[in-house]
Write a sequence for this structure.
């Protein structure tokens, strides 16, 4: 199984010298290949948690382990971010001066593959997201849904074991949003990737196998249940 197991153990995080508490003692576990959503009102800490799991930021206390790697012990978080995790954001963040194919190839640069191999892989990934025919197109000529598809293909460039998506459908109409979620479902099934999606949209959350709910920096799942899941996995 390709998917990463994720453990978040008693993680807290605050900003502005402790004045803003974003996460309070959050613990959770994701099984390899699980398709999970993280929901809750704006400002409750969802993006902060996603960023910590993606090693874009560090917790004040507690620990996070992904695919057996304790994130605070990583020598080089950029390698973890490049090889283990794929990110999809609300706004696709594609480089407007590069084609779809070149955008998908970007994360592969510096990972040792030749340009021919990168190009072939990008073509394969664009095929997977239904955009083979737009490989040479500039992002500005694509629809919102197509751009987000390219962003998903780019996130898959290095075969991540964990996909983290922050409001990936937040800027899309409901039909396009359904197509993007269907794409995540298919990635989860075909690659076995563990997927965690932050969303404010109940329709998106309903499509995931499990919903994690947050409020005021806390995870609302029964802490005992989550603690048991963690203990079971450790034994
Ligand atoms: P959500 O994703 O649920 O909308 P966030 O994780 O973005 O919530 O934010 C949680 C809280 O932490 C909010 O009060 C937000 O203002 C604060 N916060 C997030 N990032 C920062 C930051 N870099 N600096 C200061 N405060 C932040």
């Amino acid at each position: 199984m390709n998917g990463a197991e994720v453990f978040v153990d008693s993680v807290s995080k605050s900003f502005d010298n402790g004045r803003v508490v974003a996460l309070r003692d959050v613990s959770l576990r994701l099984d390899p290949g699980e398709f999970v959503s993280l929901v809750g009102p704006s400002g409750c800490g969802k993006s902060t948690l996603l960023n910590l799991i993606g090693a874009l930021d560090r917790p004040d206390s507690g620990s996070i382990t992904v695919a057996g790697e304790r994130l605070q012990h990583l020598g080089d978080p950029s390698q973890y971010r490049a090889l283990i995790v794929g990110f999809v954001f609300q706004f696709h963040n594609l480089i407007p001066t590069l084609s779809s194919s070149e955008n998908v190839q970007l994360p592969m640069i510096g990972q040792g593959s030749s340009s021919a191999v990168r190009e072939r892989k990008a073509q394969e990934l664009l095929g997977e997201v239904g955009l083979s025919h737009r490989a040479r197109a500039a992002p500005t000529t694509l629809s919102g849904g197509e751009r987000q598809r390219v962003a998903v293909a780019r996130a898959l460039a290095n075969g991540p074991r964990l996909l983290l998506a922050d409001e990936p459908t937040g800027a899309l109409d409901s039909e396009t949003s359904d197509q993007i979620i269907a794409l995540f479902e298919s990635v989860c099934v075909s690659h076995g990737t563990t997927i965690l999606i932050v969303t404010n949209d109940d329709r998106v959350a309903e499509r995931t196998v499990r919903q994690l709910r947050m409020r005021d920096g806390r995870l609302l799942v029964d802490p005992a249940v989550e603690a048991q899941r963690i203990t079971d996995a450790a034994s």
About this structure: Residues 15-16, 20, 22, 40, 42-48 surround adenosine-5'-diphosphate (CB under 6 Å). Strands lie at 6-15, 20-30, 35-39, 61-66, 69-70, 85-88, 162-166, 194-198, 210-215, 218-219.
